[in-house]
Design a protein that fits this description.
It contains 2 helices and 16 strands. It is an alpha+beta fold.
């Protein structure tokens, strides 16, 4: 097979992978706390006999953009947003500790504080449990306080404190559960420097206009690769006919 056909075919495949990343970002343009995924094309030589004149363009992940999304005031007591760097610690479905920026917290029927996906929020001694309360207040430092049922606002009592962490972003990787984990199941220490904005949510940091422009560019590149495959096939057919004629 002519290497030019292989290059065009591989290029089309890699462009489809890049389109998947863009599609994923666009699908999460309104997801609370979502961080856009980054990727880029890298040139790799095609190995084999002959002169190394062909280069493959391979789509590779560059991780994610951890810049902060816009903060939106909601007025809801259980909504929190991390200010600046940092993460909220939650218990992943497999029982390990994981991290998220999605602060649209919920209370289950038994009083467990969870993220929107149902993962328990971790406090000082494990998952946070909130007793029946007339009012819940989450402070900027993650402190959770409540006013017991039938009591006045002066009876505000501290229940627990959300574990807030700030590990090296390069050590965090997103896994299949959609949460960020430290390598090897390690856990990060609580960082008192991480601050929350109460009654607010952090929006996605995806820029839809940028992603749409990139999607259009990738679509045109894909069409060009398909045309290159067709041109190579036509050239091969013409060469075969010439050989047969001679």
């Amino acid at each position: 097979m002519d290497r030019s056909v292989y290059i065009a075919m591989t290029g089309a495949t890699q462009i489809m992978r890049a389109q998947d990343v863009v599609s994923h970002n666009l699908a999460n343009a309104t997801t609370t706390g979502f961080k856009s995924e980054l990727d880029a094309f890298r040139g790799l030589p095609v190995l084999g006999p002959g002169s190394p004149t062909r280069i493959n363009a391979v789509a590779q992940s560059l991780g994610r953009d951890d810049s902060q999304g816009a903060l939106q005031q909601t007025g809801r007591a259980l909504d929190v947003a991390v200010r600046g760097t940092g993460w909220i610690a939650v218990q992943a479905p497999d029982g390990s500790e994981a991290y998220t920026r999605a602060g649209n917290l919920q209370l289950t029927a038994d009083g467990t504080l969870t993220d929107a996906a149902g993962n328990p929020v971790i406090g000082n001694g494990g998952p946070v449990s909130v007793p029946d309360s007339a009012q819940i207040v989450i402070g900027n430092d993650g402190t959770i306080s409540s006013v017991p049922l039938g009591q006045g606002p002066n009876t505000l009592t501290q229940i627990d404190r959300i574990k807030l962490v700030n590990p090296d972003p390069a050590q965090l990787a997103k896994e299949a559960d959609g949460l960020l984990h430290l390598a090897g199941g390690a856990t990060a220490d609580a960082d008192p420097g991480v601050q929350l904005a109460s009654q607010a949510l952090e929006g996605s940091n995806v820029n839809p206009s940028t992603e749409l422009v990139r999607m259009i560019g990738l679509s045109r590149q894909y069409e060009m690769q398909v045309r290159s495959i067709k041109t190579s096939e036509d050239n091969a057919d013409a060469s075969l006919k010439l050989l047969q004629a001679n």
